[in-house]
């Protein structure tokens, strides 16, 4: 089975963490739940963060702590190389931390009975009753019965399907409505309401629902309902507005292991709406956390109750945490005996980690400018701060840094064993394709996954077929490597240097004599309780 490097849940499954990684430990804090009046960002802590950034090849990171009535913040490293330093005011792409605002907005509408369409059934309102022409799934029952609650906690039966997420169509930005309408072509991999399957596209659906109800752009609603009242004046859903801000917008990077250097990844136009579109800084995130911790601000008491109410089990106990339960854009678990709400954000070249603990009115957010390594480094830093505040002895802390390095080593080596992983024992003698490689070139199409235009690349001894997908959110290529006869491995990999995506699947050409009719790609979900699925790309040119 092809190993699945899921785009969000890999890092969300908290691996063994801080305590034995070789980093010097900060003096333990008192175990009693007391507010600090002194900043945790000491010189010693700065040395620790600098070593984490160096080890994980992360240019910069900003972090903020909410501790009762106090907010502390600091920046480390660089927001833009070579010399623009990261500060608390630096703007970063926050990716999936956007989802909590979508969920909170809908909850406020429901609790306040703001719209007749939601008044009777609330979260149980069928999505199709609000956007009937646009919300159609491959299964009739799922179309009619999928509710707002199902979508918000990722239990609709749809897997990620992130490779279908198209950003541009014929050079123009793909409207949210068109993204929603594409769902009718995508297979379900589980019965609705049985399994948690993280799904970005469903938050595009919920964004469309909000815009349909309010008849306003999503950003306007966020600003009126939450951002404005909380004075989150450095938070945006629009890249152009963020770049016009007086605060610097960080540059995203990838680390090139071969050249031992950073490469910039520019997000000039990428806007992912309510699924992952937020651009903000740690100071604004701290204002949001404080509102959640103190149950104050523009949201009602009922909405705050709703935000803390979990809906579905999202992960098994792991690495010092209990079962993870997903609710309104937050994972809820138990960490060292206390309730913890958390979420991460992963973009092509950014990572955000956010923890808040209601019992002690304490929260931490870290934002960095490399995908994957930035999330690992951020979690190492966040856990250090949280466990220091909780007074957790070194011996009871998990080594997140060590586990993160092991994870990166595993990911770096996975592609090398892909053929054996997909097909098992390979034939001693490779059978060549039954048709000339030139006949495999051309355009293939699936209504859900779109166009793949394959072209030969490489020399005669090691030719591969490559299809570029610059129009998609994840900016990926599909690279086909021959195994034997009509069997291939399809590598989904970044075309701009990011670690996202990095997956592989079995692929099979359908041929008849000298004619090529289609390409099957066998997608593996890698999740208990779900089934794998096949996508057939018919050759059209």
UniProtKB/TrEMBL annotation:
Origin: domain of life: Eukaryota
Alphabetical keyword list: Signal
Gene3D superfamilies per record: DD-peptidase/beta-lactamase superfamily
Beta-lactamase-related domain segment(s): 57-371
Annotated transmembrane regions: none
Signal peptide as annotated in the record: 1-19
Any matching Pfam family: Beta-lactamase
Family: Belongs to the peptidase S12 family.
Designated name of the protein: Penicillin-binding protein, putative
UniProt organism field: Cordyceps militaris (Caterpillar fungus)
């Amino acid at each position: 089975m092809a190993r699945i490097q899921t785009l969000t849940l890999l890092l969300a499954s908290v691996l063994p963490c801080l305590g034995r990684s070789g980093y010097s430990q900060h003096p333990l804090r008192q175990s009693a739940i007391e507010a600090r009046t002194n900043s945790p960002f000491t010189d010693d802590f700065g040395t620790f963060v600098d070593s984490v950034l160096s080890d994980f090849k992360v240019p910069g990171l900003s972090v903020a702590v909410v501790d009762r009535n106090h907010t502390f913040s600091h920046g480390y490293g660089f927001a833009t190389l070579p010399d623009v330093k990261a500060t608390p005011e630096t703007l970063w792409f926050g990716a999936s931390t956007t989802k909590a605002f979508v969920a909170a907005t809908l909850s406020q509408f429901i609790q306040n009975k703001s719209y007749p369409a939601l008044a009777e059934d609330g979260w149980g309102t069928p999505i199709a009753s609000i956007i009937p022409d646009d919300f159609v799934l491959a299964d009739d029952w799922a179309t009619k019965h999928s509710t707002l609650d199902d979508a918000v906690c990722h239990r609709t039966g749809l897997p990620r399907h992130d490779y279908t997420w198209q950003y541009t169509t014929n050079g123009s930005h793909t409207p949210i409505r068109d993204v929603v309408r594409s769902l009718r072509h995508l297979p379900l991999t589980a019965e609705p309401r049985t399994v948690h399957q993280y799904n970005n596209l469903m938050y595009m659906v919920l964004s469309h629902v909000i815009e349909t109800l309010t008849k306003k752009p999503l950003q306007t609603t966020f600003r009126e309902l939450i951002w404005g009242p909380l004075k989150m004046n450095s938070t945006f859903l629009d890249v152009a507005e963020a770049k016009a801000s007086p605060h610097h917008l960080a540059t995203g990077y990838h680390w090139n292991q071969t050249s031992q250097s950073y490469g910039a990844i520019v997000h000039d136009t990428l806007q992912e709406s309510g699924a992952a579109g937020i651009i903000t800084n740690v100071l604004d995130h701290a204002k949001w956390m404080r509102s959640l911790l103190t149950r104050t601000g523009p949201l009602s008491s009922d909405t705050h109750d709703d935000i803390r109410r979990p809906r579905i089990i999202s992960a098994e106990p792991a690495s010092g945490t209990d079962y993870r339960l997903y609710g309104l854009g937050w994972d809820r678990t138990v960490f060292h005996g206390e309730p913890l709400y958390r979420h991460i954000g992963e973009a092509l070249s950014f990572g955000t980690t956010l923890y808040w603990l209601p019992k002690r009115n304490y929260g931490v957010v870290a934002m960095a400018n490399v995908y994957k390594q930035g999330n690992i480094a951020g979690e190492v830093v966040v856990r250090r701060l949280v466990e220091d505040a909780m007074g957790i002895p070194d011996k009871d802390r998990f080594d997140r840094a060590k586990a993160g390095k092991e994870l990166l080593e595993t990911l770096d080596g996975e592609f090398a064993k892909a053929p054996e992983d997909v097909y098992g024992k390979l034939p001693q003698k490779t059978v060549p394709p039954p048709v000339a490689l030139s006949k495999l070139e051309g355009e293939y199409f699936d209504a859900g996954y779109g166009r793949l235009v394959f072209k030969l690349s490489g020399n005669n001894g090691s030719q591969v077929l490559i299809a570029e997908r610059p129009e998609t959110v994840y900016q990926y290529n599909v690279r086909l490597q021959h195994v034997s006869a009509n069997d291939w491995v399809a590598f989904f990999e970044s075309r701009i240097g990011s670690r996202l995506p990095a997956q592989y699947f079995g692929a099979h050409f359908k041929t008849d004599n000298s004619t090529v009719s289609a390409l099957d790609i066998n997608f593996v979900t890698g999740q208990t309780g779900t089934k794998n699925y096949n996508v057939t790309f018919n050759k059209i040119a």
